[in-house]
Amino acid sequence: MAAGVYLHIPFCKSRCSYCDFATDVYRTSDAVEDYVEALCSEISGFAIAGGNARSIDTVYFGGGTPSLLMPRQVGRILNVVQEKFSISEDPEITMEMNPATVTPASLKEYKRLGVDRASFGVQTFDDTELKRLARGHDAQDARDTFGMLRDAGFDNVSFDLIAGLPRQTLSDWERNLDEALTLGPEHLSLYLLEIHEGTPLAEQIKTHRQPVPDEDIAAEMYETMIDKVTAAGFRQYEISNFAKPGFESRHNSKYWRLDPVFGFGVSAHSYDGSKRYANDRDTAAYVKKIGDAGTAEVTRETIDQASEFVFLGLRLTEGVDLEKYKNRFDRDLLSEHAHEIERINDAGLIEVFESRLRLTRRGMLFSNEVFQAFV
């Protein structure tokens, strides 16, 4: 089984009001160089189990805004990954990008270096909403950047859009979907807004500068996006993810199928097949720890694989393969959780279909409640 590699690049032009990720504002090129040096050092010093080159078939630059890196920095990181791991002949190499952070020249260089998939942080095509979110770009920037991606030869592009924003109406959301579908990416990640404590948006809502998002309208938005996007030829393969045939995210699917993913960089999480571990969330602390000890790991735990296999697998529209569960864990899922499954099934949130346990369409809206039954 090929693993994946995740590379966290924390730098952003500005801090979005809703963001809870480990990010830092891009201040100096020297700080970025120091970070890239630490990241490459961490990858080089990674101890692969058994001392053999571990096969990987996906690489994912996440953040933050990885497209703030210069192409030579991206190339250096990929060279170190290639030296440490055995990369398949046809890897998926994704880079998260924000509008107005790339040029035609930089995109062509990223493509030449092997980046073949762009995960594009649009979030909304409404300029007023973009300002409220402190996104640092406008809708025209998004359109222009998408055009540059196509011109540079990117034929696998994903858009991120957020539903349920404060003051956002159902018609606002439909206009976002219509514009995204008109532009024609191969993949859409469509998320309902989550309010995270400690973010500027959470503080704005707490102090009544922004209204509390309406949950009923958000539910309508979710139903609308499924209908509209699937009618346009996209297949929903995960709660929030839709793809044209053959363009599902191979990297993100590893998380939902509980496959190994090795994470590098500040706050990066890894799963090696039995244990989950994570790096320090502070960028300066991460760089110092890598320099001093070669590792910035702060947590390590053995996970309940059977439990995670179920609630991660339920995120996929195909659900959990009951036979695979039995073969992997020598347990029968339906009898093991008979009471919980009966209760959730009676509520119309889950179903057994063709030897798979899967969420219903209503269950996707209340997925967290379902997942609690298997934790």
How would you describe this protein?
- This protein is an alpha/beta fold and 375 residues long.
- The protein folds into two domains: 3-256, Alpha-Beta Barrel (TIM Barrel), CATH 3.20.20; 306-372, Arc Repressor Mutant, subunit A (Orthogonal Bundle).
- The chain is 42% helix and 23% strand.
- The chain is built from 16 helices and 17 strands.
- It has a nine-stranded mixed β-sheet, sandwiched between helices. Strands 12-13-14 form a three-stranded antiparallel β-sheet, with no helix packed on it. It has a three-stranded antiparallel β-sheet with strand order 15-17-16.
- It is globular and about 60 Å long.
- The two termini are 26 Å apart.
- How is the quaternary structure best described? single chain
- The structural domain count equals 2
Average residue pLDDT: 90
CATH architectural label of the largest domain: Alpha-Beta Barrel
What is the CATH T-level topology of the largest domain? TIM Barrel
- The CATH homologous superfamily of the largest domain is termed Aldolase class I
Strand content: 15-25%
- What does the main sheet amount to? 9 strands, mixed
Tell me the number of strands: 17
pLDDT < 50 runs, ≥5 residues = none
Helix proportion range: 40-55%
The shape, in one word, is globular
> What is the end-to-end distance?
26 Å
